[in-house]
Structures are given as C-alpha cells and as structure tokens.
Design a protein that fits this description.
The chain has 27 helices and 36 strands. The chain is an alpha/beta fold and about 850 residues long. Among the domains are: about 100 residues, Ubiquitin-like (UB roll) (Roll), CATH 3.10.20.740; about 230 residues, Rossmann fold (3-Layer(aba) Sandwich), CATH 3.40.50.740; about 150 residues, Dimethylsulfoxide Reductase, domain 2, CATH 3.40.228; about 100 residues, Barwin-like endoglucanases. The chain has a 7-stranded mixed sheet with strand order 15-14-27-26-25-16-17, sandwiched between helices. It has a 6-stranded mixed barrel with strand order 31-35-32-34-33-36. Helix 10 packs parallel to helix 23, helix 15 packs across helix 16 and helix 15 runs parallel beside helix 17.
Length: about 850
C-alpha cells in the first residue's frame, strides 16, 4: 500500500465521501478502501490476505461483502474496492454471511485441526474467524492431506505446508517490501504451495516479518516454536535497540524470560517491520553468558566481588587519578547502549563531578558530534516524502540500518523518490538509485563539490563518471533535497562526508540531514553530552558552561579528546583510569593496534558491561549492568525522536542499571547526583537540557506522543527557556540559580577541506564496511544469529586483476603499514577501480589490524602468497 493510502487512512476526514455501511451513513476518505472505511467506523470485516502495509490482492475472498454501487447489490472483495459516493455496503446480509461461511469451510477442508499444538493457537485469525463466521462443523469426512513438516526455509524460519492457506502475505512481503523474492508459489491449482528456489534458502534480513504477518501457523520462528502459549505471555511495548532507527516493538515474556519481539506499527518509523537482528536479538538478553555480579582483578584473574567492594575500588582509583594526575587523566568511552537517563547520569558524573571532558559514546566509527547535532535535522518521513530527492552519503542501509532501507526502498519504488547514491562501492541502494556515484574512498567531498560546481582544475571530481555526475547535478538543482549522512567506510575518516555536507549546505541552505549512525542509542548519548566539547541538550561546552555550572558541581575547563584521542593518550600512558561503558574497543574500534596498546597503557580499566568481552576481560574492575528490556527510560533515534523503553524482565543476578552505578560512584566521590529514580533524571533533563525542554514523562505517555516526540519541541531557542512543566500541568521544576536564558543549540560550522594525495601505482585504497551479522557482542550471544556472520574475502574490480596478477579464488596477502593479512580474492564490478573492499568484524579475518585510525584513508598492497 502506498504512503498516500496510509496517510489518507489516518488523516481527518476532509471533503469525504458519503457511503452507507449496514444502514448507517458514514463518511469515507477519498481513495479509502471499503475494508478500511468499515473498520474505522467500528465494523470489522474478516480477512486473511489483506494487510494495511501490503498492496491488496483479493486472494482469500474472506472479506467479500454485499456492495451496491448503483447497479444493484453484488458480492465483492472489500479489500479491492475504493469507496464511491452513495455506495451501500452490507457486511451482515444473509448472502454475505453464507459466502464467508463457505470460504471458511473450503479453507478448513485440508487445514489440520492441530490448534492445541500450533504456535499460532490463541492468536490465530483463522481460529478466531472460524468461531465468529464459520459453519461450526464440516461436511467433509475424508482424511486431510499430509505434508512434510516442518521445512526449514531459512536458518530462522520453518514452514508447515499443511497449515498454509495461500494468502500470499509472505510472498508479497518478500517481493514487494523487502525486495527479496526468495519465497514464492509453486505448482498450480490444488497443488499450489509455498516454496523456496532450489538450493537458495529464504535468506532475507527481514524473514521474521513473514512469521508475524502469517495469519495461520504455516510460518514459525525456530527460536519460538513450542516455547509458549499466547495466554502465558506478558507483553509491553518498547523501542528496539538493535540499531539507531528506533523501531517500535512489543516484548513478550514468560516466567521472567524474554521469548520474542514483535513489530508494532508506528507510521513515522518502522510500519510494523523489524529486521531479523532486531527481532531475534532477545536471545542475547537471555544468554547464560551474562554477567550477574561485579568482579575485581586479583593477580591475573577476575574474581567475583561484592558491590560495596567493587564500587569502592572503582571510586578509589578515580580519586587517586584525580589526586595524582588531575581529572584529565580519566576518560569515559562508550555509552551508546545506555538509555537517555543513564547517559545523562554518566555525563553528569564525568563532566559535572569528576570534571573530565574525555568522553565519547562513539568508537571511532561515526561522525563528529557537532556535525551530527549541528546540521539541520530531517525525519525519516522527510527523507521518504513522495517526489523528493535524497542524496545518500551513508553506509549501506540494508546492512547497518535495515528498516531505514525498507522505507527508502518503498519511497523509491512506490512514491517517486529519486535517490542519488554517493558511496565508495555499490550497495543495496544502487539498483534503486536514479544516479549512483562511486568516488574513490575518502573523496566523497570532492565528488559532491564537482557535482555542485563542476570539476576543479587539476582534479577529476573524485573519479566519478561525468555523465552520472551531470545527471545528479540536474536532480539537485531541480528542487529541495534531503541528505542521509554517515560513515561510509571504517578504513577512512569521516572528513570526506563532513566535507560533502558542508558543500551541500553552502550550496543549498534549505538542505536537511538524517544522521546514519548505527549504534543503538548513540543519538541519545550525544544529546546527553557523551561527546567531547558538548553538554546535555545539544549545547557546546563553551556556550553552556554558565548554564550548567549553576546546577552541576563543576564543568570541564576545556574540550576533551574523542575516542581515538583517548585511546592514543592511554597508549602513551597519559590515562590513569579508562571507563568502558559497554564499549569493546578490541572488537569494535577500527584500529586494533591502537585499541590493544590503549588497554595495555591505561593504569586502570573499569568496564561496565553485560558480558565479558575481549576488552572487559582485560579490565581491572567489571561492573555487571542490566541491559535492554531490563531497564526503563527513553531513547532517541536517528531523527531525534524520543520514545519510551520499558522494563519487562529483571537482569541476571545483581546486575544494576548504569544510572544507579553512576549515582553510587558519585556518592563514593563525596557528591550526590540528586537522583533516586529515573523520573528524577528525566525531570532534570527536561529542566537543564535545552533541546529536551518540555520532554516530560507525562508528554511521552500521552496519546499524542504514541509515536514518540521529535526534539527540540521548538526551533526557537527563546522558547526553550520556558519552564517545561508549564504546559503539562506539572509542578514547576527547581531551576535554582540558572541563567535567565538557556544556551543556543550547537550549529554545524564547516571546516577547511583538503584533497587527498592520489594512491600510488602499487596500492589499492581500502573500503571496510559492516554486515548486519558480525562478531559484535549482542549478535555473538544470540544463538540463532551468531552462525549467520558470513565472514569476508577481498573484493576487487576485475580491471585491477591483471595489474595484480591474481585470479578469482586465489589466496592473497593484504599489506598495510600496520599489518599483513591473508584472504581469498574475488572480482566485483561494484568495487571501483583502485579500491579493495573487505567486511569489518567478521570471523576469520581481523580487518581492524590493517587500519590506522590517525590516517584519512588506508592503502593496502595486494600480493599473491607466492609473490
């Protein structure tokens, strides 16, 4: 179904169409289907194949009702017919009832009556509608058909063909929504059945959605099958933290154990869809590898410790570092997994109590915080608005932000959105793009400047095709554009895309940007001040110092180091205490050599984590934290949309929320953060953080904020000085001695662009990207997802094969100034000439060993093993 149809179904009735439903006069919306108009007016028409997010096909015929369009009543499928003036609809006539009765009787001829053991039992539309609309008994006494069961159509989904009613929901989703037509109808007539292609499983990143939308138990999830009955489940809504898109989900648990996630349909974000990483990630929450108690290193071992001893030891180390080397010897790395409230608590502890600005929620794989927060922000709906133009300057969305990919795909295929892809290699958007430009790694800025202003003398515009560049320039000149901006390769710095953003903003000041940062709540963490040079609420340290000094014990004197700077300082012996907030630099930081030297060089490492990761195993003190679904609070997605996270289960052992650990450490540092609950933190955020003024618990709980709230509520900084409780009926917050007006929100200030030196004749420029499944902590501890990490090989343009003297399938050596790795090599036309592409953080090849994070790009030489 198109965006226009969905929006029409949710908009107020204006210039409506008068129709009659069961004798009552109602007003339908223009273009509204009969089935939707009836349901909106309290009349439910049964259906199986119809789904509001799929194009209607009228397959099941369950929704047939008597409709009179002026030529007499006749049975017609209500999911295929739009309302017209004076239409008369009868959903309860004897003819309608008999027809629906007959449809159900036919569906049940061979459908097994195994409801007591079917996973769909208790929440099955076929079961419910048979009771409500069916005949009550069958006239068929012959034995039902039997088929092989279950059939694994993928690693995550099982098919029971006996139960399938051929509604076409799964196949339509796979083909039309996901763009992965890997599951389809086979045979004809009564032999029609669902199947995959030979030797090609249903290996879609979105396969779990077919399980959720299947109206019977034909498709089931491997990790939920036979686990629970619906009436055993307790359910609460929350926001997925598998990436930063912020999909709305429901969490189902039984006996304090998560059993499944289901997508919840909210129009601004995910439309009910989830990627499989987000859907099946609950297994990590249940993992037996979770840490349930704090640990302190004794000799060469981490041994369990009581909370008093572990927190006391951590506080003593921080006090000793302050006394010996000053607050600048303490650094805090990570925080993207935290809720907004926990991130604020840690920002207040680090910057307002300890006094260090060496804080960064990103692990060297994002963009500078002032760029993310300072650019004019777009929403997902802005990017996907019908007829618009999108410049995509981010990572492959299907791999890093999967549901954003679904939204972009729908916009391109159905709503006429034109995509200009500017990336160092072909990706999932390339077939959808109106124009695809593939500049050399690190030269996206040069490509955009050439697109806007023509090729500068002595340059080639990043090496992109001239005709494609001209076509892209015409699209940009034709009207307003939105830009999706993110880190395109871990083997290059973010300077190129920042340069590109500056060029676009200078040429078209009305351009708005959607930041494509992948880490779960990294946008919320940056908003809460977990970045150097920033304070909570999107204000700079310089502008917000007086505002926060009135409420916090202290404020850092100078801008601190980012992730790379902190790790370099630790490697050089200048960091006495390194705090890891759920961060694993040995796995996730692009420069493995630097991460290794940093953990060895820091005098004390304090890790707050849910698992013993390669990094936390080297820590001196490990504090066990509660994770997603175990803590309540809020999160902020890529749009700046604040939504609620709810607690569903309790953490293992005595694991504690991160904000409590911050408060406990502050108390041991002789300071009170002033928090006794999440509500206390939220109130202080609404009072102190300018961009979050007015974002109260009451607002987020109101029906108007059911889809979350985009911050700031007002674009005018003067409006943010109003007491956030004044419009919500809350008591006024204690603002103490705050300055009269809040500081202005940070604004992006472009720097100076510089061109890269050309790659030498013997080297290739490295592109290091991510896959959805990798060796990240949460995927690794989700038993269904961990085996799906594909590994990596070296991919090179066929043009470079002769120059390198290699053939597809050869084993080659990749040599950078940092390391030499051996891998297989294949030809790939999607990799531009002079480039070499690998996938980061995959089993079998530690790509981070090649990368020097201090360099703008990484060049490698490729040699045969015998060379």
């Amino acid at each position: 179904m198109s965006d226009a149809t969905i929006e029409a179904a949710e908009a107020p009735v204006v210039d409506g169409i008068a129709v009659t439903i069961n004798g009552a006069a109602v007003v339908a919306r223009p273009g509204e289907l009969v089935i939707d108009a009836a349901e909106r007016n309290g009349v439910y028409i049964p259906r199986f194949c119809y789904h509001p997010r799929l194009e209607p096909v009228g397959m099941c015929r369950m929704c047939i009702v008597e409709i009179d369009t002026g030529r007499g009543p006749s049975l017609q499928p209500s999911c295929m017919l739009e309302c017209t003036p004076d239409m008369k609809i009868d959903t309860e006539s004897p003819v309608t009832t008999k027809a629906q009765d007959g449809v159900l009787e036919f569906l049940l001829i061979n459908h097994p009556l195994d409801c007591p053991v079917c996973d769909k039992g208790g929440e099955c539309p076929l079961q419910d509608q048979t009771m409500a609309y069916g005949p009550g008994e069958s006239r068929f006494v012959e034995e039902k058909r039997h088929k092989e069961k279950p059939i694994p159509v993928s690693d995550l989904v099982l098919l029971d063909r006996e139960r399938c009613i051929l509604c076409d929901r799964c196949t339509r989703f796979a083909k039309d929504v996901a763009g992965d037509p890997l599951i389809h109808f086979m045979n004809r007539g009564s032999d029609t059945e669902i199947a995959t292609f030979p030797d090609e499983p249903f290996s879609s990143y979105f396969s779990g959605n077919t399980v959720q939308i299947c109206p019977v138990g034909a498709l089931t999830a491997t990790n939920y099958r036979f686990r629970a009955r619906p009436w055993d489940l307790q359910t609460v809504e929350s926001t997925c933290q598998g990436c930063s898109v912020g999909c709305r989900v429901s969490l189902d648990s039984s006996r304090n154990q998560l059993l499944r996630y289901q997508g919840v349909d909210i129009d601004p974000v995910n439309w009910g869809w989830l990627c499989d990483k987000g859907r099946f990630g609950f297994e990590a929450v249940n993992s037996t590898d979770r840490i349930g108690e704090p640990m302190v290193r004794q000799g060469h071992e981490l041994l369990p410790s009581g909370w008093a001893g572990a927190l006391g030891a951590a506080a003593d180390e921080i006090k000793a570092a302050q006394a010996t080397s000053g607050s600048g010897s303490i650094a805090v790395l990570g925080g993207a997994r935290l809720t907004n409230e926990s991130a604020y608590a840690w920002a207040k502890l680090a910057k307002g109590v300890i006094g260090t600005d060496h804080v960064d929620a990103q692990l060297g794989d994002g963009l500078p915080a002032e760029v993310v927060l300072g650019l004019p922000r777009a929403t997902i709906d802005d990017v996907c608005a019908p007829g618009g133009t999108v410049i995509f300057l981010g990572p492959d969305p299907k791999e890093e932000l999967p549901v954003l990919f679904l939204r972009l795909r729908h916009a391109a295929v159905n709503d006429g959105v034109k995509i200009i892809e500017i990336s160092p290699q072909a990706g999932s958007l390339t077939p959808l793009a109106t124009v695809a430009l593939h500049p050399r790694p690190g030269e996206a800025g040069a490509a955009v400047r050439a697109l806007l202003h023509g090729v500068a003398p002595g340059t080639d515009g990043g090496g992109v095709d001239a005709d494609a560049r001209t076509a892209a320039a015409a699209l940009v000149a034709a009207g307003p554009v939105t830009v999706v901006l993110g880190r395109q390769s871990l083997a290059e710095s973010g300077d190129a895309v920042v340069d590109a953003a500056a060029a676009l903003l200078a040429a078209k000041p009305d351009t708005r940007f959607l930041p494509a940062l992948r880490r779960a709540n990294v946008n919320g963490a940056l908003d809460m001040g977990l970045a150097p040079g920033l304070l909570p609420g999107r204000v700079s340290l310089a502008d917000g110092r007086d505002w926060f000094a009135a409420k916090w014990p202290t404020v850092p004197a100078a801008t601190g180091l980012d992730a790379r700077g902190m790790l370099q300082a630790a490697a050089d012996g200048h960091i006495d205490v390194l705090v890891l907030l759920g961060a694993d630099p040995l796995t996730d930081f692009p420069d493995h050599d630097l991460a290794t030297r940093a953990l060895a060089g820091a005098r004390t490492v304090i890790a707050l984590d849910q698992f013993l990761t390669p990094s936390s195993r080297q820590a001196h003190i490990v504090l066990a934290t509660a994770g997603f679904a175990e803590v309540a609070g809020t999160a902020t997605n890529i749009e700046g949309r604040v939504s609620v996270l709810n607690q569903k289960v309790t953490g293992p052992g005595t694991a504690r929320p991160d904000w409590i650990l911050a408060a406990e450490l502050a108390r041991r540092l002789d300071t009170d953060l002033g928090f006794e609950s999440i509500a206390d933190i939220a109130a202080e955020i609404a009072t102190l953080a300018p961009a979050y003024a007015g974002i109260t618990a009451e607002l987020l709980a109101s029906p108007e904020a059911g889809d979350g709230v985009v911050v700031p509520l007002s674009a005018d900084p003067a409006d943010l000085s109003a007491d956030p409780g004044s419009d919500t009926g809350e008591p006024e917050s204690d603002t103490g001695d705050l300055a009269a007006d809040p500081p202005a929100l940070v604004v992006f200030a472009p720097g100076t662009s510089t061109d890269l030196a050309p790659v030498d004749s013997y080297s290739l420029r490295l592109v290091a990207t991510r896959k959805l499944y990798d060796e990240g902590t949460l995927v690794e501890h989700a038993s269904s997802l961990a085996p799906l990490a594909p590994g990596t090989i070296l991919r090179v343009n066929p043009y470079d094969f002769d120059r390198l003297g290699v053939s597809t399938g050869d084993r080659v050596r990749m040599r950078s100034p940092r390391a030499t790795l051996t891998a297989g090599i294949v030809a790939d036309d999607g990799v531009p000439r002079g480039s070499a592409s690998v996938v980061f953080n995959q089993p079998g090849l530690h790509v981070a060993a090649l990368i020097d994070a201090a360099e703008r790009v990484t060049d490698v030489r490729v040699e045969t093993e015998a060379g």
